[in-house]
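Our working data are protein records whose layout never changes between entries. Getting from the letters to the tokens is the skill we practise here. To make this concrete, we reproduce a full record directly below:
***
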Amino acid sequence: MTTSPSLAGRFIGPIGAVAVLAYAVFAAVQIQVLNPLATMPGYTLQEIHAAVAQRDSADTMGWGLMSVTLAIGPLIALIVARLGVLGRLSAGTVLMIMLGLLSLGSPGYFIASFPAGMTLADTFMVDGADHAPWGRILHALSTLSTLALAGLVIARSVRASRESTTGEVQNTNSPS
């Protein structure tokens, strides 16, 4: 069903898509730049990559898996934003999908960073965990998004329950 998009619907989608894209870009920078530099203090990024290249590994630092994994969220976000701007999805639905994508960023980051972490661990005989603190920002943002999404779902359920008992019709273009 196509309806005229609300003002909120025209803004939530693009803002959400930018947030999801920013999350993915920051995750990539964390995986490929910040964490390697924190893992090997005193080394330049070029020295780290040279040491990794000497190992003759097939996919150094996991660029392939990282790129594919981190592209999924922004692609879905762009599609959802477009549908929201066109009025095919309500602002509340767009908001919930964007929060869901940000919530899924944490497991996506873990999957995307695994090969790079293991490459660093195998090359430099360190553990494969994050050494840079910036990954915590991504996990915190995903946690906050999960809490916000849960709050939205509960609020929508309560509203729907009240409306079904009073017989009111819900406005599908409201932001929540």
